[in-house]
Write a structure and sequence with these properties.
single chain, about 325 residues, alpha/beta, Rossmann fold, Alpha-Beta Plaits, six-stranded mixed beta sheet, about 30% strand
């Protein structure tokens, strides 16, 4: 059995003259929460639709849970649950009735999982209310509940936290980590980078229809810029003192202090470099009120990559 839940090689999808995906490669390990990130129009939803067989690729290969798709699509999707864009339901039926329809279509033991799915997504008390009375966040949770009817090994979730309030996002984060703890795999497409950083084990950043970088959260953050934020009443003087220092690649004043981007080939840690910069400033009589070495967040790294490629979010 492959140790990958999703394998994509050379996937290309064109809509007329527009290329949505261009020779895209992706590998998602089993038993992980995997973030799929990119600017609007980068191809995130297109990939999920291709994996589910909702549209056809022009070229390339795909495997879900070790099975080739679309050749063995039915067998592969039997243990896959998904949300694509905003989940749709019959508004005049209750949440439970909507899941009963979905279970009847899926067959097998799906109907017996309805109560458990409703409880898992926090909708047991509203299960017998009509969906037209649900908020967007509740419909998102009902969509996850519908995906759970398959007892899925793999969940494909397209922007699943849309409409959730902060408490709902926190509950969703715990739910995804619980899924992974059970051995399931979750592919999560999202623009909420802070939440992806909290939830996911690894990510791929897609831009222009291609995966431009892929790896663990720690790898991507570690490969980003290291910075030191310096607070001082004499920002002009401090900037003049630090220009040309071997540890400094660039300096900018950002409204909260002086942000120093460290040289990429610097052998010192960010903390050691901060100490060195502090010593240089104090030696020149510059008062330092704040010294904060910073590690690039996933959002920082995402912005670095997409700006370099000319993308926008």
């Amino acid at each position: 059995m492959s140790d990958l839940a999703i394998e994509v090689e050379g996937l290309t999808k064109r809509f007329g003259e527009r290329t949505a995906l261009a020779d895209l490669d992706l590998a998602v390990p089993r038993g992980s929460a995997f973030g799929f990130l990119g600017p609007n129009g980068a191809g995130k939803t297109t990939l999920i639709r291709l994996l589910l067989g909702l549209t056809e690729a022009n070229s390339g290969q795909m495997r879900l849970l070790g099975l080739p798709v679309p050749e063995l699509r039915g067998a592969a999707l039997a243990r896959v649950g998904a949300i694509v864009e905003e989940p749709r339901f019959h508004p005049f039926l209750t949440g439970r009735e909507n899941l009963q329809i979905a279970a009847a279509v899926r067959g097998g033991a799906a109907e017996a999982r309805i109560d458990g799915a409703l409880k898992r997504v926090g909708l047991s008390e509203r299960a017998d209310d009509r969906v037209r009375s649900y908020s967007l966040g509740m419909r998102q949770r009902l969509g996850v509940g519908r995906a759970l009817l398959a007892d899925p090994e793999l969940l494909l979730l397209d922007e699943p936290t849309n409409g959730l309030d902060p408490a709902g996002i926190h509950e969703f984060r715990d739910m995804i980590r619980a899924f992974v703890g059970e051995g399931r795999t979750v592919l999560l497409s999202s623009h909420l980078l802070d939440e992806v950083e909290r939830i996911c084990d690894a990510v791929a950043i897609v831009d222009g229809g291609r995966v431009v970088v892929q790896g663990s959260i720690e790898e991507l953050k570690g490969s980003g810029d290291r910075t030191v934020l310096i607070g001082t009443p004499d920002e002009v003087g401090a900037q003049a003192v630090l220009v040309g220092h071997a540890a400094v690649r660039s300096i900018e004043r950002n409204g909260t202090g002086i942000l120093v981007t460290l040289a990429s080939d610097l052998e010192l840690t960010a903390e050691e470099a901060a100490g060195e910069l502090n010593r240089r400033l104090t030696a020149h009589g510059i008062v330092v009120s704040k010294l904060d070495s910073q590690r690039a967040s996933l959002e920082d790294r995402f912005l670095q990559i997409t700006k370099r490629l000319g993308g926008t979010e």
